[in-house]
Amino acid sequence: MFDPDDLINFELCFPGSLTGETELECPYCRVLLTVPVNDPMGEDSFACCECSGVFDVNWAEGSVKYQRPTE
Ligand SMILES: [Zn+2]
Questions:
Q1: How far apart are CA 33 and CA 52, in angstroms?
Q2: How far is the CA of 6 from the centre of ligand 1 (A)?
Q3: Which parts of the chain are beta strand (E)?
Q4: Structure-derived torsion over alpha carbons of residues 25, 29, 35, 38, reported in degrees to the nearest 10
Q5: How many angstroms is it from 51 CA to the middle of ligand 1?
Q6: What's this model's pTM, rounded to 2 decimal places?
């Protein structure tokens, strides 16, 4: 079971239309990642190449969901 308090959601502003790939910041370490957009109306999961943090992107809503880092 997920503790909802451990999931963080934030809105993204995507510039223009989403095609091919886009850049977004890793919610954990703030490194700028270039990620593929396979389905602009769907969701995708990505793993940061710097910190290995995993997060979900909902392209349709323009939101990112990630787990609160454990201390
Ligand atoms: Zn990262």
A1: 12
A2: 17
A3: 7-11, 21-25, 32-36, 43-47, 54-58, 63-67
A4: -90
A5: 4
A6: 0.78
> Cα(40) to centroid of ligand 1, in Å?
22
DSSP 6: G
Counting every residue written for the chain, the total comes to 71
Residues 43, 62: Cα–Cα separation, whole Å: 10
Q: Would you give per-residue pLDDT tens digits along the chain (71 residues)?
A: 556 678 888 887 666 667 889 989 999 999 999 999 999 899 999 999 999 999 999 998 889 999 887 76
Contact in structure between 24 and 12 (CB atoms under 8 Å): yes
Whole-number Å distance, alpha carbon 48 to ligand 1 midpoint, is 5
